C-alpha cells in the first residue's frame, strides 16, 4: 500500500523466493532473510536492499509471503527483516499481536495513504460519497486486492458502512495483480472503474488517476512505513541497524525505482533494482556507507 505492469501487470511476484538463510548476524554470519509482501514499494525496497547488501558481503535471501504470515514469520524469528509495516492503522492488528516479539527499526517513508481511486475521465464521481448514486456505473463493484490486506479490512468494516454503500456496492477481493490488470484494461477501453489503491504506487505516474475525496475520513490519515526486525535484530546486526534507522527515499526516488522494476518485467526485479542502484550510486553510497558483512 517512493511507496510492485507488476504487485502492486505488475510485479507481484518479486525478485525471487529463496527461503534459505535467516538468522545469523554481523558478528556470527552474513545470512539475512528479508520477508516481503506483494506491494510494489516492498518489492522495490526488498530487491534494492538485496542488491546493495550482497555487494557489501552479505548473503541476502528474499521470501515472499502474504501480510499475516510475514508478520508471524518475523515474530517467530524465521524472517529477519520486514520493510513495509504500515502504521499506525493498516497493520495495527498485527502490531498489537506481535509488538512484543519484534523490533521497530524506524520509519523510511512518512506519507503513505490508502485511497479509493478512479480514472480522471470519470467526471461525475469525485468523492466516495458519490459512489452510492453512481454505483451502476461501476456495476456495483469496487475492485480490490487481497482478502487479508489491511486496506481490504478498512474498506469493508469502515468505508462501506460509513458511506452507506452496503446495499449499492460490494468489494471484489482478489489480488493486487488482478486489480491492476483490471485497472489497465478499463483505462485502455476508457471504461469506468473504481479501485482500492495507495500512495506510494507507480500507477499514479503511469495513469491519469484521481483519488476520491473522503469527507468522513474513513480511509484514515497519512501513515508511516516502518522496517520491522525479529527480536534481537539490533544486537545481531548493529551496523545494518544504523543504516536502516537512517534510511529513507523520497517520492521521486521511490517512483523511479518502482518504474524501473515494473518496466523490466516479472522475474527481473533484482536486476532492475541493481540497475537503479548503479544509476544512483552516490545516493546508495551515502545510504549504505562503508557497510560490510563480517
TrEMBL record:
It holds the Pfam family OpuAC. It is found in: Cell membrane. It comes from the Bacteria. Keywords: Cell membrane, Membrane, Transport. The keyword 4Fe-4S does not apply. Its main location: membrane. Gene3D superfamilies: Dipeptide-binding Protein, Domain 3, Glycine betaine-binding periplasmic protein, domain 2. This is ABC-type glycine betaine transport system substrate-binding domain-containing protein. The lineage of its organism: Bacteria, Bacillati, Actinomycetota, Actinomycetes, Pseudonocardiales.
Amino acid at each position: 500500500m517512493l511507496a510492485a505492469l507488476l504487485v502492486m501487470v505488475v510485479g507481484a511476484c518479486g525478485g525471487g523466493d529463496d527461503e534459505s538463510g535467516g538468522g545469523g548476524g554481523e558478528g556470527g554470519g552474513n545470512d539475512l532473510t528479508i520477508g516481503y509482501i506483494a506491494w510494489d514499494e516492498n518489492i522495490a525496497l526488498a530487491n534494492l536492499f538485496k542488491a546493495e547488501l550482497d555487494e557489501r558481503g552479505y548473503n541476502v535471501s528474499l521470501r515472499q509471503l502474504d501480510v499475516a504470515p510475514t508478520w508471524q514469520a518475523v515474530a517467530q524469528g524465521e524472517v529477519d527483516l520486514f520493510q513495509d509495516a504500515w502504521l499506525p492503522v493498516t497493520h495495527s492488528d498485527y502490531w498489537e499481536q506481535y509488538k512484543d516479539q519484534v523490533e521497530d527499526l524506524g520509519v523510511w517513508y512518512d506519507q503513505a495513504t490508502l485511497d479509493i481511486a478512479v480514472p480522471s475521465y470519470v467526471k461525475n464521481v469525485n468523492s466516495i460519497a458519490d459512489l452510492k448514486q453512481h454505483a451502476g456505473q461501476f456495476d456495483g463493484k469496487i475492485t480490490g486486492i487481497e482478502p487479508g490486506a489491511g486496506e481490504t479490512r478498512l474498506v469493508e468494516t469502515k468505508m462501506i458502512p460509513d458511506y452507506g454503500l452496503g446495499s449499492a456496492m460490494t468489494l471484489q477481493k482478489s489480488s493486487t495483480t488482478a486489480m491492476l490488470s483490471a485497472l489497465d484494461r478499463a483505462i485502455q477501453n476508457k471504461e469506468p472503474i473504481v479501485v482500492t489503491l495507495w500512495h506510494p504506487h507507480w500507477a499514479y505516474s503511469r495513469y491519469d488517476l484521481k483519488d476520491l475525496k473522503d469527507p468522513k475520513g474513513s480511509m484514515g490519515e497519512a501513515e508511516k512505513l516502518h522496517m520491522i526486525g525479529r527480536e534481537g535484530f539490533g544486537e545481531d546486526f548493529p551496523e545494518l541497524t544504523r543504516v536502516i534507522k537512517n534510511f529513507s527515499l523520497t517520492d521521486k526516488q521511490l517512483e523511479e525505482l518502482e518504474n524501473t522494476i515494473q518496466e523490466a518485467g516479472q522475474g527481473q526485479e533484482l536486476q532492475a533494482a541493481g540497475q537503479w542502484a548503479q544509476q544512483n550510486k552516490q545516493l546508495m553510497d551515502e545510504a549504505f556507507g562503508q557497510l560490510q558483512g563480517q
